[in-house]
Amino acid sequence: MLRLLVADDHEIVRKGLVKVLAEILQPIKVDEAKNGQEALSKVLQSEYDLVVLDIKMPGKSGLDVLKEIKQHKPHLPVLILSMHPEEQFAIRAMRAGASGYLTKECAGDELVLAIRKALKGGRYVSSTLAEILAGELNIDSGKPLHEILSDREYQVMLMIASGKPVGAIAKELCLSAKTISSYRTNILLKTKMKNNAEITHYAIQNKLVD
């Protein structure tokens, strides 16, 4: 029997995924996790054939969970399923060891195709992601500014660019406002930007925010 773990903080998304997978991949048992910490705990305590992981969850982010899973169980396939377009997080996810990155707009059969490929040890790359990866290979100059940021700094940068105040970011990430302010300071130092307006302009210019 195939054993999967679906981690997403939205119950309706989890239930929908479980229903789709149960209809197509038989026999199957699907466990659920509503946040990153629960997902990591279940992975460490149980044996799964594959994990489907949302990238943006309260507290421990999907990228953080992905990295920890790969530390403890490097051969366990992890598919990232996110509401964010490939341009924002896909390359970071693949570098961290993901077996594929799909947006939540993808059709059920595409998800099943990605799961089947990952179970065979392959990596699923959508046509959109393939273009992004090809573009990365063709870049002759140094890394884009946002590539020098840590994953958490990058996440905070996107939230700042989306217009969220420090307090709201802190609440969403389950961190203190002081910690978020420190991340913001690091972002400004590393990118040599001066304020939130420049962060927002940069993010829009590079199509990092919708």
Tally of contiguous helical segments = 10
Mean pLDDT: 86
Radius of gyration: 17 Å
Q: Care to count the β-strands?
A: 5
State the helicity in percent bands.
Answer: 40-55%
Number of domains: 2
- Our measurement of the CA-to-CA distance between the termini, rounded to an integer number of angstroms, reads 40 Å
Unreliable segments (pLDDT under 50, ≥5 consecutive)? none
Could you name the CATH class of the largest domain? Alpha Beta
Beta-strand residue fraction: 5-15%
- Sheet bearing the most strands, described? 5 strands, parallel
Task: Describe this protein's structure.
By secondary structure, this protein is α/β, with parallel strands linked by helices. It has 2 domains: 2-136, 3-Layer(aba) Sandwich (Rossmann fold); 145-205, Arc Repressor Mutant, subunit A (Orthogonal Bundle), CATH 1.10.10. It is built from 10 helices and 5 strands, in the order E-H-E-H-E-H-E-H-E-H-H-H-H-H-H. Strands 2-1-3-4-5 form a 5-stranded parallel sheet, with helices on both faces. Helix 4 links the parallel strand 4 (78-82) and strand 5 (100-103). It is globular, with a radius of gyration of 17 Å.
